[in-house]
Write a structure and sequence with these properties.
By secondary structure, the protein is α+β, with helices and mostly antiparallel strands. It is built from two helices and two strands; from the N terminus they run αβαβ. The longest helix is centred in the last third of the chain and has 14 residues.
Length: about 60
C-alpha cells in the first residue's frame, strides 16, 4: 500500500496487516459502524489468528 488513509478499504487494511512480519499482537478497530467493524475483525482474525482483535463498538 503506497498511501495511508483514515478511510482505507477493508481489503487494503488486511493486506497491510498481512505484510507486517512480526505481529501485531493487538489490533483495535475504532472506525465504522458495528457491522463494518465486525466484518473487518473476521478478516483480520483469518490472517492473524494469534492477534487480539478489539472492536470499539462492542466496548
Amino acid at each position: 500500500m503506497g498511501f495511508t488513509s483514515a478511510h482505507a478499504a477493508q481489503d487494503d487494511l488486511v493486506k497491510f496487516v498481512e505484510q507486517i512480519e512480526d505481529g501485531p499482537s493487538v489490533i483495535r478497530i475504532v472506525h465504522g459502524d458495528k457491522e463494518a467493524q465486525s466484518r473487518l475483525a473476521d478478516k483480520l482474525r483469518a490472517c492473524r489468528p494469534n492477534a487480539e482483535i478489539v472492536i470499539a463498538a462492542e466496548l
